[in-house]
Amino acid sequence: MLRPYRNNTLMLNLTAASLVCLVFLSGLFIYTGGNLLPSAKGADAGKAAEIWIIWSVAVATPLITGVLWVFRLTKSGGG
User: Fold this and answer.
1) DSSP-H helix ranges across 1-79
2) CA distance 21 to 23
């Protein structure tokens, strides 16, 4: 059975990527004056889709990492 939360290298990389995403989202929040959602006004459909995809990845990465950390910390050792 696949247990990604048991892989130390994967968890280290995901945690580092999550920190980068959280810094990116914090900067977005500060830059927009308190709004976390991206603005795609004036962008064509392709550029708007690109903005939303990048934002979705930036939000999903810390969420997935957090869930994996919860699994890792709540599962007892041994197989």
Assistant:
1) 8-31, 45-74
2) 5
